[in-house]
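User: Predict structure, ligand NAI.
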Amino acid sequence: MAYDLIVIGTGPGGYVCAIKAAQLGMKVAVVEKRATFGGTCLNIGCIPSKALLHASEVFAHASHGMADLGVEVSGTTLNLDKMMGHKDATVKANVDGVAFLFKKNKIESFIGTGKIVSAGKVSVTADDGTVQELETKNIVIATGSDVAGIPGVAVEIDEKVIVSSTGGIALDKVPGHMVVVGGGVIGLELGSVWSRLGAKVTVVEYLDSILGGMDGEVSKQFQRILAKQGIEFNLGAKVTGVEKTESGAKVTFEPVKGGDAQTIDADVVLVATGRKPFTAGLGLEEAGVVLDNRGRVEINGHYATNVAGIYAIGDVVKGPMLAHKAEDEGVALAEILAGQHGHVNYDVIPGVVYTQPEVASVGKTEEELKAAGVSYKVGKFPFTANGRARAMQATDGFVKVLADKDTDRVLGVHIIGLGAGELIHEAAVLMEFGGSSEDLGRTCHAHPTMSEAVKEAALATFFKPIHM
Ligand code: NAI
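Assistant: Predicted complex:
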């Protein structure tokens, strides 16, 4: 049976591409090596971590966040098994949802390891060793990414004491001391989870700031907020060793600028130093598919590799390793394969860190604008001056709008605050339409909402805010 399209990998890039292609009339099959669909994001990444972030936040709130509101709770206890049960149920509902959508769209699925035999041919090796060969007009590589480990450091991740994000969402007890290697998104999200549940958390980060690449002002204030929540930071510190000990593990690090090495003991070490494209066993070399110097599948502007009929999207290609970027690439590629004009606007891809408060950004940072020599203006508004934020005791954070000095076109928006991950999308829509800070500031916003801070920051960008 020949297909129009076989997608290898069913993460957010792969499954969305498959569904869109089926909607556009193609005969589609997917190949997945896990027993369930949804890839890293649904099984061991975004979705389970958000279930734990929510549950741990409720726990922290109930433990010590309500008295000022007149809600007195005593004797809050943690049932970690039950919390993990909530996480597992959330994952199941999501992966089952993808299976349902495949059926609904008449997408055939093959569970096993997919390998490209040649353009137009994919083999699937099941767990029991049986091999099936499938024929197709087009192949999409959507195999995602895997834990990168610490560059230059040999670390044995056992997912019990020395864990990646996979083990970090499945610990069977709250560690006394968790050392997080890497102050990026995973480190700060999972560090927050275990800190809220009672662990002492120490982050060791190579750079001088957390969330490298984020707007500098946002990163600084965010670190202060997390420090207030009890997370400790060692910045400008390069981890040179992680070893298991009799009682747990030890982490050795040294100042990047030079100086003496230090060692700290941990019950659990979370290694969160990035991810790398996953291409092992795919047969890319034999099929002649070219990788770039960072091991990513090389593609052109239409997601085509150098081999006709083979395409790639998501974490396995260049660009931010984000589920929604992969999804949009999946849609664009399916449209291109259907003869339409699929397109992704890489200038407007929001990024969210799901801590409390959340951090969200879209477009350029102030540092990027400076480096590019763009003349810009800045408007800021703090949540301390927002009525709704006061009512909810959610005054941490601010909104920052960056707009072109001459045209007023919004070039970047950065938010720390409760619900920042939702608020950011009004900026994304505005930027998608090439809107200005005046457009945003003159748009009527419901009162009282957190969104009014976005409007006020826009007002501050082109003239003056009202409530400051
Ligand atoms: P990351 O690239 O965000 O952060 C890794 C950090 O480790 C960097 O700040 C780096 O400077 C530091 N580091 C590297 N080597 C080090 C060393 N030897 N010593 C100390 N620090 C060191 O990677 P992360 O957090 O592992 O996330 C992986 C990917 O998953 C990212 O692309 C991220 O965007 C994505 N992700 C996105 C989420 C979201 O959008 N909310 C959630 C989780 C992951």
